[in-house]
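User: Here's a chain of 152 residues. Predict its fold as tokens.
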Amino acid sequence: MSQSKGKAGFGSGGFNPSGKDRPMSHPELADYSRPNAAVIASQNDAFRRFACLGIAPDQPIQGRLVVTQSLIEAGDGFVTEAVQATGAFDTFEPENDPAGWHDFGAVTIRGETVFWKVDLYEADSDFRYGAEAPDNPETTMRVLTVMMARDW
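Assistant: Prediction complete.
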């Protein structure tokens, strides 16, 4: 009876369907460059100011503004105040913006904490996939959600 090194196809290099005991080769990873955080931050700021304050950006930026039901239920004028404060927000620091994308913030309206968040999606994906090139406004769709902190 002969001894075997294990199941066929499992040599020292991981699963190898040929059954030969040799390491598998790994294709080189595609050249990946990180998106430009400063460009993303600038685009997020421009979109937020456009969506919340009506200030037109220098270039078209695709996106939607969404508010939660609890924000609407907070009362007369609350949504307007929260959206305007979101558009005017500019207090970005490493503690509240570690990636430098300007994609999250908190404001206080009538003693209530309101969060806002910008999510970036592939423009043609029906909001199913994150943006592959989030610094490209032609292929990125932004969704700015304004919500009560308790909704988080």
